[in-house]
Amino acid sequence: MARGLMIITGVSYPLIVFFxxxxxxxxxIAIALLVVVLARFALGGSSSQGWLLLALLVPxxxxxxxxxxxxxxxxxxxxxxxxxxxxxxxxxxxPMIERFARMINPNLNPAEQAHCRQFTLIWCGFFIINAAxxxxxxxxxLEWWAxxxxxxNYGVMGFxxxxxxxxxxxxxxxxxxxxxxxxxxxxxxxxxSHVTPD
Length: 198
What we know:
Layout: H1 2-11, H2 13-20, H3 26-43, H4 50-66, H5 69-72, H6 75-90, H7 96-102, H8 110-136, H9 142-172, H10 179-187
Helix pairs in contact: 1-3, 2-9, 3-4, 4-6, 6-8, 7-8, 8-9
C-alpha cells in the first residue's frame, strides 16, 4: 500500500500540481504532498523508493517553506537525475536494459549484451535531456510544464521502452511461444542472416 501510494503520487505529480493550482495555493498543495510523504513513512514498507521520497520531499518542503511555485515544479527534474544515477551506475556492472532483457532470456550472447549497454546509454542521455528541459520549464507557463512533464514525458519513455524491445527482437530474432512473440514474429521481417537454409 505504501509503495503504491508513492508511485501513484509520483506518476500523477504534474496533474496534481496543475489541477491543484486551480483551487489551492502553492503552500496548500505542498503541504498536501508532505502529508502523503509522511503517510508513506507511517505505513512503513520497503525503503526501495527512497529516491522517490526524496524527490517529493525536497520540492514539497521548499515550496511549503518559501511559497514557491518554482520549487514545487522541481520534482520531475529530481526524478530524472535520480533515474540517471540509477541507470548510469549499472554501466559498471550489468546495464539496466540487460537486466530487463535477462528477465525474458537469461542467456544473452555478447552482441545482445552490447545492444543492452547501448540502449542503457541512450536512456542515460534521455534522462540528462529530460532533466534539463524539465528544469527550464520550471519558469515557463504552468501549462507547458505540466504538458511536458506529464503526457509528453511518459509518451517518450513508452516509445523508448517499446522501441528497444522491438529492435532487440528484430536484430536477434529470438522469439518465445508467448502470444506477443508469435505476433511479433509475423509482424517483424526476418533478417537474412537468420534465415535457415533448406
